[in-house]
Amino acid sequence: MAMFRSLVASAQQRQPPSGPAGGDSGLEAQYSCPICLEVYHRPVAIGSCGHTFCGECLQPCLQVPSPLCPLCRLPFDPKKVDKAAHVEKQLSSYKAPCRGCTKKRPSPAAWPRPSSPPQVTLAKMRVHVASCVRVQEQMAHCPKFVPVVPTSQPIPSAVPNRSTFACPYCGARNLDQQELVKHCVDNHRSDPNRVVCPICSAMPWGDPSYKSANFLQHLLHRHKFSYDTFVDYSIDEEAAFQAALALSLSEN
């Protein structure tokens, strides 16, 4: 535990480099968001740990009651997330070569290389990469995904999300089961509206049109545990009941 705290403290003390001392090749990586892995866009910094992210990338973390930093997993106050003005200034000051433009052409005679690779301001790198023909060529030639072990099972499609849910009262998103319970108890304890339980409606047996008369009591009594710990989604409710009954009889 002491070693972990030491590592976290060390990470908190790291600040963006004051200049391109690391060389152009690694400059883009130094100013890339840890979530989307692209150069920062409208960067924001968490006040407690100092880690920086794109504003849009961090937004889902701000929608939960007790947010954690995506990088160091330390809790933070969403009200203490500020615009990283110093990072934006550095993005406008520093330049780096495009990862596509600097690659060798197939035919040097047909594609003469300049004496020095073209430099792009980091603030404009995203726009440049999106329109760079060389980057598009690299993406087109990327190897296709191949399973490590051959399988005859089809790749699942349209799999419902049973891990995170939206609050049926206010629409707050990306809440796991425990966060949904806490959010509703803290914010909607006196709300008299009848709403559909998002957890039940996501289950194979759920009725997306059924509204709970007392949603809070339903949450506290029916959703104290996570379904995916005990439920096999590949079988229907009757088969699950029979399996539970058989297991109960065998234990007795």
Structural description of this entry:
The protein is mainly α and 252 residues long. Helices cover 36% and strands 8% of the residues. The strands form three sheets. The chain has a three-stranded antiparallel beta sheet with strand order 2-1-3. The protein has a two-stranded antiparallel ribbon with strand order 4-5.
Per the principal axes of the C-alpha atoms, what is the gross shape?
extended
End-to-end distance, in Å?
A: 43 Å
User: Please, how many helices?
Assistant: 11
Strand content: 5-15%
* Cross-sheet strand order for the largest sheet: 2-1-3
Concise description?
With 252 residues, this protein is mainly alpha-helical. The chain has helices at 2-13, 24-30, 55-58, 85-93, 125-131, 133-140, 177-187, 198-202, 215-222, 227-230, 237-251, and strands spanning 43-46, 52-54, 81-83, 95-97, 119-121, 195-196, 211-212.
What characteristics describe this protein?
252 residues, mainly alpha, three-stranded antiparallel sheet, two-stranded antiparallel ribbon, 11 helices, 7 strands, disordered N terminus
Give the secondary structure arrangement, pairings included.
Blueprint: H1 2-13, H2 24-30, E1 43-46, E2 52-54, H3 55-58, E3 81-83, H4 85-93, E4 95-97, E5 119-121, H5 125-131, H6 133-140, H7 177-187, E6 195-196, H8 198-202, E7 211-212, H9 215-222, H10 227-230, H11 237-251
